[in-house]
Amino acid sequence: xxxxxxxxxxxxxxxxxxxxxxxxxxxxxxxxxxxxxxxxxxxxxxxxxxxxxxxxxxxxxxxxxxxxxxxxxxxxxxxxxxxxxxxxxxxxxxxxxxxxxxxxxxxxxxxxxxxxxxxxxxxxxxxxxxxxxxxxxxxxxxxxxxxxxxxxxxxxxxxxxxxxxxxxx
Length: 169
What we know:
Elongation Factor Tu (Ef-tu), domain 3, SH3 type barrels, seven-stranded antiparallel β-sheet, six-stranded mixed β-sheet, 2 helices
């Protein structure tokens, strides 16, 4: 499955009860938003299978879900460790100046004067703001993701991000 067509939104982390419900570690914000993306493609050991989400809710810090065709604890246990993927077209279109993290990963990052800093490897969520982890070989830079401040422009078509950042930092 190409990375551009599918996005990882969570993982099956356990079982819940005896009727086949699964515990889910969700990457969505808020966590229970993962329940609105159905069907899920569960990938484990290079095998993928599609499941319709029939019910679910937030349960403490986790999310629990019922999947069509998963009717007992043993079936649910067999899904533990599965990555939860959705099709990109299941996501709503982002508004202006909003970006999905998955769209930023891999972008070429350079300063306003054209100095190459590396590529976005991943992002970190902090209390104050998100942080870009930009990697160039052995060099790793942590750049605050602040639009119109440190992040000057993003061109998804050109796979390029321009930042106001000192290359020596």
